[in-house]
């Protein structure tokens, strides 16, 4: 577990720091653009952090920032999975089974997602508290938990989609159809999911996707590894 985490962190610092800097820069930029001194801390956080798409402003900055936020985490998760299968197969699978690797990888990417979201929320909340002596709202913690679960759900869904794409002999039409379907179906308002029931449902979906992905990795491992190796 320690090896996988350190290896992924080292990879991010070497290969993906520009993306992470853009992610942090956009957080500062959205804070400067969206901060409203006359609004309470919770509403400011909801306004600045991409947790909602306003369907009445589809051509504005807000939906683009929301989609970038999703793309950023999905890209990093897929990238961290595939780089092991492309470049470190011998080192990793001499030590553990593919299912053990996948389980540890899920934990690792969840930890990295958590850390990056902590940075994002800390920038926004710290900025608000510096600009205005507002009282902290505990609802922000619940929103943060829902945001993390939502991202883990989206990441795991796209990982499964990526594996299906590989097993379908990389049929781009199928991939585009799946992506369009997910864009339509996946909720765009994390605030509306901020309840105990919704969090439980999201966890159930994450578990189901994890089980399906594990079974596919177990029984289709040779084809998956061969296809990724050819990319």
Short description:
The chain is an all-alpha fold and 231 residues long.
What does this molecule look like?
The protein is mainly α and about 230 residues long. It has helices at about 1-15, 15-35, 40-50, 60-85, 90-95, 100-130, 140-165, 170-185, 195-220, 220-230.
Helix/strand layout:
Elements: H1 2-15, H2 17-34, H3 41-48, H4 61-87, H5 89-93, H6 98-131, H7 139-167, H8 172-185, H9 196-219, H10 221-229
Helix pairs in contact: 1-6, 2-6, 3-6, 4-6, 4-7, 6-7, 6-9, 7-8, 7-9
Keywords:
globular; 231 residues; 0% strand; mainly alpha; 10 helices
Series of secondary-structure elements, N-terminal to C-terminal: HHHHHHHHHH
Q: Tell me, rounded to a whole number, the average pLDDT.
A: 81
Q: State the share of residues found in helices, binned by percent.
A: over 70%
Give the CA-based shape: globular
Tally of helical runs = 10
Q: Tell me the distance between the termini.
A: 27 Å
Structural class of the secondary structure composition?
mainly alpha
| Beta strands, count | 0
Describe the main β-sheet briefly.
none
What is the quaternary state of this protein?
single chain
Beta content comes to under 5%
Low-confidence regions: none
| C-alpha-based Rg, rounded | 19 Å
